[in-house]
Amino acid sequence: MLEIRKIISEYDKLDHSKEKVALASVVSVEASAYRRIGARMLVRSNGLWTGGISGGCLEGDALKQSMNAIYKNKSSIVVYDTMDDDKNQIGVGLGCNGRIEVLLTPIDPNDPNNEIELLRSILNAQEPSIIAKVISDDDERLATSKLINHHDTELSFLDIDSDALQDAIQTVLAKKSPRIFDLPAGEKEIKVLLEFVRPETRLVIVGDNYDVNAMANIASTLGWEIWVVGRLKKLTKELVGKVKRVIPFEEHTKVKPHDYTAVILMSHDYKWDLEILQHFLEYKPAYMGMLGPKKRTLKMDAELEGVNLESIDFLHSPTGLEVGAESPEEISLSIASEILAVFRQKGGQPLRKKVGPIHEREV
To answer: Does the N terminus or the C terminus of the chain have fewer Cβ atoms within 10 A?
Structure first.
């Protein structure tokens, strides 16, 4: 979501009467690639761009291709295939060894349904969004996109069979990742990308001591939405500028997490951590961590009746991955890494020990 916000911010700064733009989007990946489906790059007609579709090896050519799409005012797909490791191929220097399809879409600022506006509409979503997009290169409707409300009982997108579309959407929701489908539409099939877009991660930091600054800094860099439960007078002006909401300790019951909320108890106050822990246990957030030694958790466990803290899978105490962290910044890095691993359903192990490809195949 951070990249989407940057793209929209840049788009809003432009004088569209003098400058045109196109959106380059990764819509298919085979084998290895630095970026995955959903990576985007906004290209301006003056040659500047925001975002990215790779680690730097494809952007130069994608810029040229996007400028061509702007000039022709026509969407197209360009394929970058580095699977054969040919030294003359674009991107082989990065060692990707993959096949990437990039959709180039000129953006019409007068179209209220253009993809930039579609992305704008999901910025503050509290749950995952599904974006349907035609990626059949031989279809005149190439790049046609729609935000799908998966709660609707009757789903529609172009002339695609509604039952087939419903089944495809349920697959995407179950996998929590984008998928490409060949869906029946009248007498032919249309290749459609159903993109799964997670909402921004919400991080609730309980505490107002100096180490909260380090946790907020890394969360801000990651583009997470930050809430702080603590005393406003103890927070720095810089920190408050990064925070969406500040809630006093006494009003912590107003905080109600959604499915993409992580909670960190780091008040250094046993009484407040114990009381606020009990509040969040009722909501079962996707991740809840508590700073401090394990004996602190065991002490709380002994005080709570009918609760076995060690049996609660979403409670991580002590919080963070074991990386030898010592400073507030290093500790915050270990915590943020564990949150990301939990939200992406990964074990947090070294990649060199992983069997198979780094990313699950998204087709």
So the answer is: C
